[in-house]
């Protein structure tokens, strides 16, 4: 594991580690390794897609554990339709992907050097025994609420298990750094969308070559946009946000139960 990659071998795994695996170029699935080859993670089962007809459906389904092949895992069984906090063997969790270790207590320089979110945080991890205890408690109660790709996902679950920190703001996304990176990237698009050269790459090259001032302007916009992306991503990190607090796991489960009851009541009112 180094600056450019958090990839590790299975021999390096320790109970309480926050691990992840890339499901696609833009999405990582996260969980807590609790020892004995088991990972506790938060997922949304197959058949419960958000139904947008977009790539978001595929992203959510890709969080489902998969052993590979046609036969269910001999240890885990068929988990494709399970929903919420579940326990899987390491093979099913990875679903054929590589193993990566999420880093905690990184410096701001290291954080900004990581170009993609979902790999590290400035926040400090609690002791491994506390991390494992939180994960097992949430698994026993299936107590992390309803999966939501943007507001309450697998990375939010793993970060909570590691830190006990919960985002309290209702105006921002959760603690997931990969989601917050998307939010930050949106600002970059907004900053640079006013600049247009045309759709032809050749035309753009010719325009830049014929005008040094235009070349400098392009570089200025790119550097400004990337700078804004980095600053925004840092501001969203759970380690520096002001809208988080430490929440005991039993209080979290009780809070999620209240939220779910209110949600069910609202659904019943709409149907009646």
Automatic annotation (TrEMBL):
Pfam families attached to this UniProt entry: LRAT (PF04970)
Taxonomic lineage: Eukaryota, Viridiplantae, Streptophyta, Embryophyta, Tracheophyta
Protein name: LRAT domain-containing protein
Transmembrane segments: none
Domain LRAT, residue spans: 19-170
Species assigned in the record: Brassica carinata (Ethiopian mustard)
The organism's place on the tree of life at top rank: Eukaryota
